[in-house]
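Q: My labmate handed me this sequence with no annotations at all. I'd like to see what the chain might look like in three dimensions before we decide whether it's worth expressing. Could you predict it?
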Amino acid sequence: MRIGVFGGSFDPPHLGHTLACLWALETGEIDRVLLVPVARHAFGKSPGADFGQRMAMCRLAVAHLAPFVEISDIEGRREGTSFMIDTLRLLVAERPSDTFRLICGSDVVAELPKWRESAEVLRIAPVLELPRPRRGATVEENPGAIPPISSSHVRELLRTGAPLGTVLGKSVRDHIAANHLYRESTP
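A: Here is what I predict for the chain of 187 residues:
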């Protein structure tokens, strides 16, 4: 099986993430997407929702793409900081007959040399580069690019109660509301 590994904070998982999964599947380069929420971010980012909540939201966000998109708790099952190299080594050990591609936005590809053991990451899982729009470019200048939705912007909208528009799927919105996630803190 050819597996596309799509890691991220997914805090919260938004429609850009869902579209990325669909895009990766439609390339024909992979058979399945493995969505891998980060447990403890390597660059020190603090999540707005805990790992369990992010796992639950990821399941909801891509439920309609099952069985072609799986959610993995692999980073939550191990200790320490989440480094992609460690995750990939565990995946290779758990799935020795599978091959891997790293689904990575074009905006992240330039950051790969900063990753721990980046050359080994790319050897195990060559990049399947997800088209992301260049900053300030028009849709016409970026045909096929995934919409530029950011989780940090979504969290800010949720925190302040601003209208969300179409950045989150209904099931994720409902989960966030039912669990009172990303609300503005009260004194």
